[in-house]
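cron nightly-structures :: item 1 of 1
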Amino acid sequence: MALAATMRPLVSLALPEKGAARLATQLFLAIVGTLLLILSAKTKVVLGPVDISLQTLAVLLIASAFGLRLGVATLLLYMAEGAMGFPVFQGTPEKGIGVAYMLGSTGGYLAGFVVMAAIVGWAADRGWERHPVKLFNAMLVGEVVMMAMGFAWLAMLIGAEKSWQFGVVPFIVGDLIKVALAAALVPAVWSLLPKRP
């Protein structure tokens, strides 16, 4: 039982033990998480034909801090906001809104964000977010799965060669940097916290 108590994600330190207060806190954190995702989507660096956002970094940080259930719930809330037509994604409203945008060229990546959050959140629930190497490995797996989903969806729309050229290659270095940064940052936060008996 003591081991189970120590292997909880970072957010568990802020959550009340049970009841309405716990649910309200989780809802508040999910909303804050979606605001972080929106901000990260709108913060971009233009590199040639593609824009690189901080969204991958935000997904990794949210999943590793929130754990599996709250992390995935936060991503699903974000997707629901987008499906309802709110301009929460990187290319909205300029390139469309709602479900039509989500089924466009970025659809596979958006779905991949949810799967990536599940993978990293699962690792966080097991205490991996306290160990940089373990966390990096989990985040890298999540990143690869997310990119594979994005590539597969994009390949159906524009073909495999163009998908690889425009949907994967330009993002490899930047996303590896974001994975490394997130994998270093979260354990660093844990190391600053006082040790609990």
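cron nightly-structures :: done
The domain at 10-192 is CATH 1.10.1760.20 (Arp2/3 complex 21 kDa subunit ARPC3).
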